[in-house]
């Protein structure tokens, strides 16, 4: 059996490897190369070195604002989504009636596409704020919190399912032993429950962190017309199509350079987060 597997292993590996190279590795390498060029089309590029990266921080007024807004949005979303999802998971693992129905209802928003969600919440929020003469599409203050609400509504149910799986894997003996020793519910929560669900915390934090940084379609649909509420992904998109003041090739090069910075930023932050939370798992 082992000899047969070794013999046919390349046959099963090569199609997947070829697809990975064609759809990810090669485009990624080309994208990094194009970030150092000016181009209108991929096969007609002019090398300019670090000029695109310099323009991002000197001539482009939107990048730093979008970066600051994205970091703020990610911090708020990661905290609120994980806390609320964990509390819901605790509530729905208490053996209440209708638990399965509640789990389904809370999970359903995750199945709706981002563009649709953006338009739905745009109608809802503008319907409420319209009484005060406010349009979320153009108001940056309301637009930011509108994005936070939308992100929470979409992801809380998904993260809740992961936390429920973690909570259900905690041995009952631990909680029983804590109760016998006189531990209060709060002490049990912080000294037994949370440490035991750290693998779920790692997964949920990673997913909320990366999804918040990469948010695009919801941002485009909800308040994409306002430059003051453009997160990084939307700002990169706009860079490719906003050709005011510079040549088309320069805008494309800057957009590609922003995409490379964006990738490195998300990768580094996600790596730090995974390392930090996994260390907590090892300690426990």
Brief digest:
The chain has 284 residues and is mainly alpha-helical. It contains 12 helices and 2 strands, in the order αββααααααααααα.
Give the strand line-up of the largest sheet: 1-2
Distance between the termini: 40 Å
Largest sheet: 2 strands, antiparallel
**DSSP strand tally:** 2
Along the chain, the helix and strand elements come as: HEEHHHHHHHHHHH
Instruction: Please tally the helical runs, counting DSSP H or I stretches of 4 or more residues.
Output: 12
Query: Percent of residues in helical segments?
Result: over 70%
Q: Are there runs of 5+ residues with pLDDT below 50, and where? A: none
Helix-and-strand structural type: mainly alpha
Strand percentage lies at under 5%
Anisotropy-based shape: globular
Radius of gyration: 23 Å
- Roughly what is the average pLDDT, rounded to an integer? 85
Structure write-up:
With 284 residues, the protein is mostly helical. It is built from twelve helices and two strands, in the order H-E-E-H-H-H-H-H-H-H-H-H-H-H. The protein has a two-stranded antiparallel sheet. A hairpin with a 2-residue loop joins strand 1 (37-41) and strand 2. The model has no long low-confidence stretch (mean pLDDT 85).
Write the layout of secondary structure elements.
Blueprint: H1 2-34, E1 37-41, E2 44-47, H2 51-58, H3 63-91, H4 99-107, H5 114-129, H6 140-168, H7 172-180, H8 185-196, H9 198-213, H10 217-223, H11 232-241, H12 248-283
Antiparallel strand pairs: 1-2
Helix pairs in contact: 2-12, 3-6, 3-9, 4-6, 5-10, 6-9, 6-10, 7-8, 9-12, 11-12
């Amino acid at each position: 059996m082992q000899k047969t597997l070794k013999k046919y292993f390349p046959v099963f590996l090569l199609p997947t490897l070829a697809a990975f190279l064609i759809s990810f590795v090669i485009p990624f390498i080309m994208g990094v190369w194009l970030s150092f060029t000016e181009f209108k089309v991929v096969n007609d590029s002019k090398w300019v070195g670090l000029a695109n990266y310099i323009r991002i921080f000197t001539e482009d007024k939107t990048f730093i604002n979008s970066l600051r807004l994205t970091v703020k949005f990610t911090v708020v979303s990661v905290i609120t989504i994980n806390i609320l999802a964990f509390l819901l998971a605790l509530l729905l693992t208490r053996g209440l009636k209708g638990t399965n129905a509640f789990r389904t209802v809370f999970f359903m928003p995750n199945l709706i596409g981002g563009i649709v969600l953006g338009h739905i919440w745009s109608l809802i929020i503008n319907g409420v704020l319209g009484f005060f003469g406010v349009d979320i599409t153009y108001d940056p203050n309301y637009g930011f919190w509108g994005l936070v609400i939308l992100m929470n509504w979409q992801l809380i149910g998904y993260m809740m399912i992961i936390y429920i799986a973690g909570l259900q894997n905690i041995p009952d003996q631990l909680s029983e032993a804590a109760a016998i020793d006189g531990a209060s519910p709060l002490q049990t929560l912080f000294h037994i429950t949370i440490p035991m669900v750290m693998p779920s915390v790692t997964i949920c934090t990673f997913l909320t962190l990366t999804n918040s940084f990469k948010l695009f379609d919801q941002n485009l649909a909800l308040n994409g017309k306002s430059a003051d509420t453009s997160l990084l992904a939307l700002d990169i998109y706009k860079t490719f199509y906003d050709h005011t003041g510079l040549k088309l090739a320069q805008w494309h090069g800057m957009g590609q350079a922003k995409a490379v910075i964006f990738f490195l930023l998300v990768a580094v932050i996600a790596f730090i987060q995974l390392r930090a939370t996994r260390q907590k798992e090892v300690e426990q």
